[in-house]
Design goal:
This protein has a single domain, classed as Orthogonal Bundle (ABC transporter involved in vitamin B12 uptake, BtuC), CATH 1.10.3470. 68% of the residues lie in helices and 7% in strands. The strands form 2 sheets. It has a two-stranded antiparallel ribbon. Helix 1 crosses helix 12 and helix 2 packs across helix 12. The longest helix has 31 residues. The radius of gyration is 23 Å and the shape is globular. The protein starts with a helix and ends in a 14-residue tail after the last helix.
Length: 343
């Protein structure tokens, strides 16, 4: 039973990343009808926003301490981060320690700008083009962004630690009545799940309860009629693209301590996230979230040793097998609108 609970937790952890990326993909497809293969690159850029802020906060001044010498008798050089010089050692060290959560506020304007420039400068010219053209141009854009990141940050993963307060593991089993130390789970993965739930809830609340969101939902259902009412729906859809980019970016920021950011991490998540969108239903926001968590849990259970021993490689293909079954039996996905992907 304890192993089952651990696999569910692992599945929710993976599913959180899948759901957040798929949510942004679905927002773009549902509003603009664009298949955005550059969305995984936005997740990667978000992760490197965390790396960048950490590097900025650790910029240091070098001074010599005459009271301390090295083995050659020379005064030792001491590096002091500027934030510690400005705010004091304790506060400065705390700011550096919490660089990943603080990177959310650093990433939001950057991701909004990147999303706006992508939509305004390139993708809007492909609205009426076939999906194959959209896939090719956005996939090419993803490769360009990937190579830019590789040029500036290198090819190796960059460790981006979580705050010290969230290092170590939480004794989850005690809450469920198990013996102590039976079910231990990393604090930061629990934080990521809670963060994902918060972001998903905020996006749904924004679309459901704000005037802006209601107009967007109406535009998703009937774009022409909303335009005839004198509403600049194109401008609102551009802002939705920026919002989708922001969702992917903050998802990448908070995922940085779980998987060290590297230039190809966007591609690693992109294919899986598209499978999630297809299984959930193209254009269905609830479907994207539900399928993200469902496939995350299935992938986690398929990774259990007895499953891998019984069917070698099942953990690598389980998501695609589920996608094949769904597409054969229900082409529009689990929660997709009737007629979508069924022509």
């Amino acid at each position: 039973m304890d192993q089952v609970i651990v696999q569910i937790l692992n599945g929710l952890d993976k599913g959180s990343a899948y759901a957040l990326i798929a949510l942004g993909l679905t927002l773009i497809f549902g509003t603009l009808g664009v298949v955005n293969f550059a969305h995984g690159a936005l997740f990667m850029i978000g992760a490197f926003c965390a790396v960048t802020l950490q590097r900025i906060l650790t910029l240091s001044s070098v001074t010599e301490d005459p009271t301390r010498t090295d083995f050659l008798g020379n005064p030792m050089k001491i590096e002091t981060p500027y934030v510690e010089s400005w705010f004091g050692e304790a506060i400065g060290a705390g700011i550096i320690d919490w660089s990943v959560p603080l990177a959310i506020f650093f990433a939001i304007p950057i991701m909004m700008l990147v999303g706006y420039l992508m939509e305004h400068g390139l993708i809007r010219h492909f609205y009426k083009r076939p999906h194959a053209d959209q896939i090719l141009v956005t996939f090419g854009l993803a490769i360009v962004l990937q190579e830019i990141v590789k040029y500036f940050y290198g090819a190796n993963p960059i460790q981006t630690p979580a705050p010290d307060a969230f290092t170590g593991s939480f004794d989850f089993g005690v809450l469920l009545g198990f013996d102590p130390l039976t079910i231990m789970y990393p604090y930061w993965r629990l934080v990521y799940f809670a963060f994902a739930a918060l972001v998903i809830g905020a996006v749904f609340a924004f679309l459901q309860f704000t005037t802006f969101g209601m107009v967007v939902r109406a535009g998703m259902a009937d774009r022409e009629t909303v335009g005839l009412l004198g509403i600049d729906i194109d401008k609102r859809f551009t802002l939705m693209f920026a919002l989708a980019a922001c969702v992917a970016g903050v998802a990448g920021v908070m995922y940085a301590p779980i998987v060290a950011p590297n230039y190809h991490m966007g591609m690693d998540f992109l294919v899986l996230s598209f499978v999630v969108v297809v299984v959930g239903g193209m254009g269905s926001l609830p479907g994207a979230v539900f399928a993200g968590f469902l496939l995350g849990i299935l992938e986690s259970f398929a990774s259990m040793p007895f499953m891998v021993d019984a069917i070698p490689g099942i953990n690598q293909i389980i998501i695609y097998l589920v996608a094949i079954i769904i597409l054969l039996t229900r082409p529009r996905g689990l929660m997709g609108r009737k007629g979508v992907m069924e022509e």
